[in-house]
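Re: [ENG-882] Designed sequences occasionally contain unexpected residues at chain ends

Forwarding the minimal case from QA. Structure tokens:
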């Protein structure tokens, strides 16, 4: 069942003046070509659910890689609780978890359980703490039966959930997902979307990068439209639907469909 009150919830965040993650004046270019990111300014309030949408090559993934310091800004900055994330990258990466489109690129363990434990092991957490957190996340995502499987033998949806579990072990405050539905069948999409919405309802800040708005638009608080390396519009989804095609975002579902119906989760 999906949440029918995202817009009221987002308004409440702004009334309280909460700012958790902020991008200010971010720019990036390669060589003499045009900027892949051009003066990006955007804020992600604590506990919000933001969808970043735009056509392929518009800079969405480049922006994502800056959010926890995988890429260092050429100019501009990324702030977490008002502090530049570059000053404490280890803390920033614990608090801001990234789930990439290509799950195989994040898989490193020989079993699902060992893959999930990888990040905590790198931080040299006590073994009993790691084991406890891995078991907790396996149960939370209902994938305990996969714990001894080899990750590369999993289905696409199972791989995505394995990678998400590896992020959740670190207990991040913010979870950023890049095209999490790509290549998944219907059941895979539903499982991943259930995980995302459940985490949001638990208070996690969700940043979802997708071109496939029909699957998840009903659940977000705010929509950010990108094109040609720039943020073109930011606002409530209902206020921006008429502008999608202007910025290269395909709208395949027709003119009269309500936002509340744009989900693959049903009662």
């Amino acid at each position: 069942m999906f949440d029918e009150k995202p817009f009221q919830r987002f308004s409440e965040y702004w009334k309280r003046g909460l700012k958790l993650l902020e991008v200010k004046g971010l720019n990036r270019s390669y060589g003499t070509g045009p900027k892949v990111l051009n003066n990006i300014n955007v804020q992600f309030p604590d506990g919000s659910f933001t969808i970043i949408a735009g056509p392929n090559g518009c800079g969405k993934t480049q922006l994502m890689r800056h959010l926890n310091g995988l890429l260092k800004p050429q100019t501009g900055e990324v702030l977490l609780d008002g502090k530049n994330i570059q000053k404490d990258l280890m803390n920033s990466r614990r608090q801001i978890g990234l789930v990439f489109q290509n799950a195989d690129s994040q898989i490193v363990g020989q079993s699902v359980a060992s893959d999930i434990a990888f990040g905590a092991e790198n931080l040299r957490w006590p073994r009993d703490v790691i084991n406890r957190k891995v078991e907790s996340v396996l149960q939370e995502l209902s994938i305990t039966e996969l714990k001894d499987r080899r990750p590369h033998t999993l289905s696409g949806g199972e791989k995505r959930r394995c990678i998400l579990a590896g992020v959740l072990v670190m207990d991040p405050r913010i979870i950023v997902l890049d095209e999490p539905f790509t290549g998944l069948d219907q059941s895979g999409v539903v499982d991943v979307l259930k995980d995302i919405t459940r985490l949001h309802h638990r208070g996690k800040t969700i940043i979802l990068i997708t071109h496939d708005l029909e699957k998840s638009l009903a659940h977000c608080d705010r929509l950010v439209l990108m094109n040609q390396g720039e943020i073109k519009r930011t606002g409530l989804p209902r206020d921006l639907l008429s502008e999608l095609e202007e910025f290269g975002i395909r709208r395949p579902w027709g003119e009269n469909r309500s936002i509340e119906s744009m989900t693959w989760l049903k009662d």
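QA comment: On inspection the terminal residues look reasonable. The chain has eight helices and ten strands. Proposing we downgrade this to a documentation issue.
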